[in-house]
Design brief:
With about 170 residues, this protein is of the alpha+beta class. It has three helices and four strands; from the N terminus they run αββαββα.
């Protein structure tokens, strides 16, 4: 009888493979007008995120604000993927003030077990779709009144503090 091998799930043979998988997930992030204005590169277990100004929409986004917001969505998706792969993401935002397009360096940190939220978020990455319609309570898309929204939990992220500015049913000003 053959000896029993230990079962390992979702653990890659090398960090390089995990870096590749994390970046593959991150490029699925939503972006303004689907411009995908980011460039990812890596060396070892460090992933670098840069804004790609050639993909900025000059008329719709003259200051680059929406480009940076889109890159923020890519960074969040990268962090979700890294946690799902079993690492603590170590993020250094704007690591070089002389290079404004260099938005973040992310290192695959210590090994951690992914939790249920990590799994659920990661499983939704490739299910993302564009919604160009409005949102209103009871439309089947917006969260129901009084229900806790997952975005409030984003305050667990390093450097973030959750705060409540509106209830889910308070309409945004037009």
């Amino acid at each position: 009888m053959e000896p029993t091998r230990p079962r390992v799930r979702n653990v890659s043979e090398t960090p390089a493979e995990d870096v590749r998988r994390a970046v593959e997930a991150a490029v699925w992030a939503p972006s303004v007008h689907n411009t995908q204005p980011w460039i990812f590169s890596h060396r070892g277990s460090r992933i670098t995120l840069r804004a790609d100004p050639d993909r900025r929409l000059g008329v719709a986004d003259p200051t680059g604000r929406e480009m940076v917001i889109s890159c923020g969505a890519a960074l969040l998706t990268l962090r979700v993927a890294i946690r799902r792969l079993g690492y603590r993401p170590e993020v250094r935002l704007l690591p070089d003030p002389d290079r404004p397009n260099l938005l973040a360096d992310v290192i695959l940190g210590a090994r951690i077990p992914p939790d249920g939220d990590d799994r659920r978020l990661y499983d939704q990455i490739r299910r993302r779709r564009t919604h160009r319609g409005g949102f209103a309570p009871g439309d089947g898309v917006s969260p129901p009144c009084g229900r806790s929204c997952g975005w409030r939990r984003s305050g667990r992220a390093p450097g973030c503090r959750p705060s409540r500015t509106r209830t889910p049913c308070t309409p945004w000003p037009r």
